[in-house]
Write a structure and sequence with these properties.
Length: 841
């Protein structure tokens, strides 16, 4: 803003009037102050332009135009003044340095001449140097080329040295594969992959080689698996031989231990009871054969690895372990072995027919588990104890079921005994390999019961044959030797018979010593099964006594009962059977002593069972006695059926009927047989007398009852007095027989009382004493106390009908017609008595 410029008033404002003097002074001061501020602001802007980058000048210059109007003109004036000031300073500086500049130019011109001279010298020197170094350059290039070749050769040698081991290892791998050394081949592959191939992996042959190795692994895996399958097939075929060897060794070991124990206890043990020169050890046939087997087995002891090559399993296990697939191999092996176990446990359908079938079955099972035990201990984790135990428990359940089924088909005790021995050896063998066999011994107790059943069946046939071959007569003894032979087989002692001279007879028949010997043979046979069952002497004693009790109470008792019931066994045979059972009953205590000597268990032991032979033979004797009574009655009935009375006969023949005399003679001869019953002591004498008395009384009662029934038979309509007289003669013969004491021991007329009913009835009709009968009826002292009114009425009715048709009572009608009326009266009275009895009852 120029000094002295006028200020225009703002638009819209009224024009200013001339200020007074004071106002003019104030306006002049304000203008001066604004001029100073403007100058200071322009100075600042110039300093910023001089010191600021050209790109930032725009905002500075814009501030010039933003100020008061015409400020840019004053700024331009200020800027021109500043430019002129700078020009003066530049001029002063140029004037100050001009001489120096001139001197420098002069020196530079001088240096240019020297530089051109030096340039010529350098060019000449370079030319001469180039000429001189051309040959050196050629030689240097040759040296460089040789050095490159040398370096390439060294590199090649170095690379070849890295490749050669790879190729050598690969060649070694091929050789191992060809020689079937697969485990070593896998190790070689592992070295190739981890060590050698990474060193030269940039080469193509190494890449091809690396791609080939997985295929080779798969081939090795397939080949090893094929070898494993061949091995599994091989052990399936060799299981029989492996099991046979293992069981034979177990049997030899058991025999050796048993022999050592017997030899150690030989000096202090109680002598074994012998029968026919045999001890229990010899009786079992274990000494000679087992000792010979043991001597043969001492030469060479074969094991599972001697019979089977287990290398395929080891090789396959190592291969799969190296390949990281061990679990797959273990699962496959266990699965296949389980399948084979099921095949091994499947028996043949006819296994129960021969012992060889059982032996082959056991050999295969033992061979299977011997192999598994070897695998368990020879490998780590291929099979575990838990797996083998699971497999064994499954097999054991199947074995028990199979043996229980097949043994039930066996009826031969010898075969059952051989089966038991096989099971014991089978159990001992597997127990030696750590398997639990308690359930097998429990099974043996079931088979023992079956064995006893087969023995009982066998001995039932033996007893039946003995009874069929017996003649049921006392044993004749001609010489002392014969007598000793009998008592050596049967414990018979009778002082009276021993005093008798030869020849003499022993009271029992031939079947008695034979039965006694067969019972002892049964005990021996039962003892065979109890051996090697790891049981105490007390348990064996208990088993022997229980089985012997079964033989006596069931088998022998049944045979005796059947024998007694046979129709061809007569009264004589029945009497002899009673005698035989008496002596067998006495021999029971000797059988108990026999068992005690075998087992060395005192009979006073708390748990010792007693033989039930006493009750068995008593029951048989009672059955024989009952059969005697029955057969006597049957024989009496046969004679009664021969009776042929002429019931309308006018008068009797004066003698007894023939059939009755034959019957009485039969009874007399029969009761004489009872004198042979044993009576060597008071008890037996009382027993024999009681049997004879009971038989005689039973026969007399049955005869009396049969005669009474004959008179009262409803089919018999008419009876004459002559027939009554003839019948009376027969009854008199019966009374005479009863009074003749056919069997001693009856007191008074006890036996005659069997015919008292018949006697009183016949006396009533023979004497015709109806008045006495009717008068004394119901009185204890009645003469005809045993005559029943209904019986008398029935017989009187038969006689009444006869009088009407045949005029038997005509003499009464002629002489005394009152007697006919008496008959009618008696009939009426008898009927009234009968009716009164029925109403009272």
């Amino acid at each position: 803003m120029e000094r002295g410029g006028s200020l225009s008033p703002p638009v819209g404002c009224p024009p200013l009037t001339a200020p007074p003097a004071a106002f003019s002074q104030h306006t002049a001061n304000m203008a001066e102050s604004e001029t100073l501020e403007t100058v200071t602001e322009h100075e600042r802007i110039l300093q910023e332009i001089e010191s600021t980058d050209t790109a930032c000048v725009g905002p500075t210059l814009r501030s010039v135009y933003d100020d008061q109007p015409n400020a840019h003109k004053r700024f331009m004036e200020k800027l021109d003044a500043r430019i002129r000031n700078h020009d003066r300073e530049i001029e002063k500086m140029c004037n100050f340095h001009h001489q120096g500049f001139v001197d420098a130019i002069t020196e530079l011109l001088k240096v240019r001449a020297d530089a051109e001279k030096l340039m010529g010298q350098v060019t000449d020197t370079n030319r001469r140097l180039q000429d001189a170094g051309r040959e050196v350059t050629a030689q240097t290039e040759e040296v460089i080329r040789c050095r490159i070749q040398q370096r390439n050769m060294a590199t090649t040698v170095e690379k070849l040295q890295l490749c050669i081991p790879v190729l050598e290892m690969y060649s070694k791998l091929k050789e191992q594969l060809e020689s079937k050394r697969y485990y070593a081949a896998l190790k070689t592959m592992e070295q190739l992959e981890n060590i050698y191939i990474p060193r030269v992996s940039q080469y193509r042959f190494c890449q091809i080689m690396a791609e080939t190795l997985p295929k080779l692994r798969e081939e090795i895996k397939e080949i090893s698996m094929s070898d494993l399958k061949d091995f599994l097939e091989s052990i399936r075929k060799h299981s029989d031989k492996i099991g046979e060897t293992a069981m034979r060794q177990a049997q030899q070991h058991r025999t050796f231990i048993s022999a050592v124990q017997k030899q150690a206890s030989l000096g202090c043990a109680k002598p074994l009871y012998s029968l026919n020169g045999r001890t229990t050890l010899q009786h079992n046939g274990l000494v000679g054969e087992d000792a010979a087997d043991e001597e043969e087995g001492d030469d060479e002891v074969l094991t599972a690895q001697d019979l089977v090559d287990f290398s395929p399993v080891y090789r396959c296990l190592h291969i799969y372990t190296v390949l990281g697939d061990r679990e797959t191999f273990e699962n496959y092996y266990r699965k296949q072995r389980k399948k084979q176990a099921r095949l091994v446990l499947q028996p043949q359908s006819n296994m129960h027919e021969t012992v060889e079938g059982y032996r082959k079955y056991f050999n295969q099972i033992v061979g299977f588990f011997v192999v598994e035990d070897h695998i368990l201990h020879a490998t780590q984790g291929l099979v575990t104890r838990a797996f083998t135990d699971e497999l064994w428990n499954m097999a054991l359940s199947k074995i028990i079921a199979v043996l229980r089924t097949h043994s039930s088909y066996c009826n031969d005790p010898d075969l059952v005994l051989e089966l038991k021995n096989l099971i014991v050896i089978f159990a001992d063998t597997l127990q030696g390999y750590g398997f639990s066999v308690n359930r097998l011994f429990d099974l043996l107790f079931e088979i023992r019961d079956q064995y006893n059943e087969t023995l009982l069946k066998k001995w039932a046939l033996v007893f039946r044959e003995i009874f069929e071959e017996d003649n049921y007569s006392p044993i004749p003894v001609e010489t002392e030797e014969e007598y000793k032979s009998v008592i050596s087989r049967f414990p018979f002692h009778d002082a009276e018979i021993e005093k008798q001279p030869f020849p003499k007879k022993l009271p029992m028949s031939q079947s008695v010593p034979q039965i006694y010997i067969q019972v002892k043979e049964f005990i021996y046979a039962s003892l065979k099964f109890s051996e090697s069952l790891h049981r105490s002497s007390t348990e064996i004693d208990d088993m022997l006594r229980k089985s012997t009790n079964l033989l006596l109470t069931r088998t022998l008792s049944g045979c005796l009962q059947n024998l007694i019931k046979k129709p061809h066994i007569g009264l004589t045979e029945l009497v002899q059977i009673i005698i035989n059972t008496t002596h067998l009953e006495q021999a029971c205590k000797y059988l108990e002593d026999f068992i005690t000597n075998i087992t060395n268990v005192s009979p006073e032991t708390v748990h010792t069972s007693r033989l039930y032979g006493l009750s068995t033979f008593k029951d048989a004797r009672h059955a024989a006695e009952g059969e005697i009574y029955t057969k006597l009655n049957q024989k009496i009935d046969e004679f009664i059926q021969l009776a042929d009375y002429e019931w309308n006969m006018g008068e009797s023949d004066g003698r007894a009927s023939g059939y009755l005399m034959d019957l009485i003679n039969f009874l007399r001869s029969t009761f004489q047989v009872f004198t042979h019953l044993p009576n060597n002591n008071n008890d037996h004498a009382a027993m024999s007398g009681k049997v004879a008395q009971t038989a005689c009384m039973s026969a007399c009662k049955h005869l009396a009852t049969s005669l009474m029934q004959m008179l009262l038979d409803t089919e018999l309509k008419q009876i004459s007095m002559g027939a009554i007289q003839q019948f009376n003669l027969d009854v008199i013969q019966c009374e005479l027989f009863a009074s003749s004491e056919p069997v001693p021991g009856f007191q008074g007329d006890t036996l005659q009382l069997a015919f008292i009913d018949l006697r009183q009835l016949l006396d009533l009709f023979m004497v015709w004493d109806w008045s006495t009968y009717l008068a004394d009826y119901g009185q204890p002292t009645s003469k005809y106390l045993r005559v029943n009114p209904s019986t008398a009425l029935a017989l009187l009715e038969k006689m009444k009908d006869t009088s009407k048709k045949n005029n038997i009572f005509s003499q009464f009608r002629k002489n005394d017609r009152d007697k006919q009326k008496l008959i009618e009266t008696v009939v009426k009275q008898l009927r009234s008595l009968v009716n009164g009895m029925s109403q009272h009852s």
